[in-house]
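Input record (one chain):
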Amino acid sequence: MDRLTALLSLGTLEAGRPWPLGATFDGGGINFALFSSHALQVQLCVFDEAGQKELARLSLPEYTDQVWHGYLPYAQPGLVYGYRVFGPNNPDHGHRFNPHKLLIDPYAKRFVGVFRWAPAHFGFEPGAPGRYPSFDKQDNARDTLKAVVVHDDFEWGDDQPPATAWTDSVLYEVHVKGYTMNHPDVPAQLRGTYEGFASNASIAHLKRLGISAVNLLPVHQSIPELHLSEKGLSNYWGYNTISYFAPEAGLARDDPVREFKAMVKSLHVAGIEVILDVVYNHTAESDHNGPTLSFRGIDNAAYYWLRPAHLRYYENFTGCGNSLRLDHPRTLQLVMDSLRYWVSDMHVDGFRFDLATTLGREQNGFDPRSGFFDCVHQDPVLSRVKLIAEPWDIGFGGYQMGHFPPGWSEWNDRFRDTSRAFWVREAAYRGEVAARIAGSSDLFKHDGRRPQASVNFITAHDGFTLHDLVSYNNKHNLANGQESQDGVDDNKSWNCGVEGPTDMLAINALRDRLKRSLLATLVLSQGTPMLLGGDELARSQQGNNNAYCQDNDISWYQWQDADDSLISFTARLIVLRRRYPQLRRSRWLTGYSTAMGEKDIMWLSREGTEMTQAQWEEPGRHAFGFLLGADSPQHPALLVFMNAEASDWTFPLPPGNWRMVIDTARPDEVLPEDASGAVTLKARSLVVFEKRAPVVLSSA
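The corresponding structure, as predicted from the sequence alone:
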């Protein structure tokens, strides 16, 4: 019998330390530390390598500053474990301890086993109508995940973060699995994995487009909701987190930690940053009827917002049953430790925070000076990475766009809605369109924030793809098993005359022109553009605007049907953005003159003159332009005309020599080298001109 087995048989642990939280290998053994302010006893449960057989239960012997801790000598990385936590089981006082439930360590970095839904996961048996449910004594160990102790021995070599400036950033929101599952040039055994995403073919497409950062949909370990599992579906997007340190095992072939790090390293070599979509607003334990898997059984009252007058029930700011309370110092510590781990150990370059308003909630509601924001602002690691907020949740006062503190960027849904309304519905006021194109200073110009605080997007994972936006009037979500009751109804979409696919050439040509015009508006606007992955391929989800549970061809990219012309057009737009600094200004547009004597921006009516106040206020006008002045001889002025109307329109050109560089009505044609006088725009199209240096004629 080896020494570890002998120690396990004795059933005792050494005192260890109350820090760091989690399971930490120090070269001679493993220290275990678990926060719980209300527990009466904590047992460490050790399992065999497969997580099938429980080998020992060892009580953590010490309790220091609300942390239970113990040390297991001779234990090595790879040890499999979970916790059982004893304490009061009184939901009316906010406590839901149940030692019959094996619990996941909130600091676990890797898991073994497969999570299976079973009645034993629930802390209470269903009660009779009108009566509280009764305490459940079933053991759930067989059907839950077990944590694995890891040790960082990855060879990063000379890995360096690309550290791309916000002004130069072009984001690409993408799902690791969906992007590669059908890619013909990704090796079959790597498709759907971190390794597949890091493959040469995968990275080559990102480089062709000119993407500076991938915004990965959630890669924290998650589990499917019960109602989805019962329908044979899963939470494909991953917004049902159960661990904030462990990379999703379903995206790995063997070792998710090592394979994730290797992916990041490969992307960094290509100059591409990695931004993670993170879900610190709720957990997979759902509402008061949900399972006891981790946080609920460790210290329910500390981790979750509970209703003050009814502590049995949860505040549901998120729409997912519970809300993580970052006003508690230990919950805040968990989130901060997790974020630092992903930057320091996993080398990611930033985060997009799902339902970020919840993170800033204090006792009196959202506060831009909450403990969380203050902690991030002063943190020497996190204050230097890219921080993006989804600036809303569904609670009272949940819509907080423009109210996040300095150092943060925000998803700008006003840009999305205005761009869609202008191009697709002819329903947007031109002044609103101009405000969004100019960087949304009305929302973000405060506290020293720059235009890059606005993350502009037309489409995102939640909603129609770009192709479906111009192909469907209505959502088609029957595959989700909710009778198409899920997903939003206000999509600001238009099917161009036929619902869904069609062979009618005129309708397809109109759809293609609208897609190009929307993409051009995105890339030509001030702020930070975010492209939904697959839009450049003309990817369709068959009209499903809520494909969160579709781990299949509805969500996977259909590379075999990719529109190569649209890929090339998208890449040209991004090249144009990189070529002209006027398109990625670090300071707000003013309407005043540049060093070259031209206004930094001039808004033009469809008569070609500078827009007057009366013209701004004219209803029903959906054609106008703008001139971005030159700021140096190397970067000439740019002229943009936009015609979202249903008929062609002729714009007079300003004085000078102009060269057309983009025409969304003619993406594949050779454009004229010189233009003067006037230009006719097809319906629902956009053109871009650059100003050419005047021709100097030599004397005879």
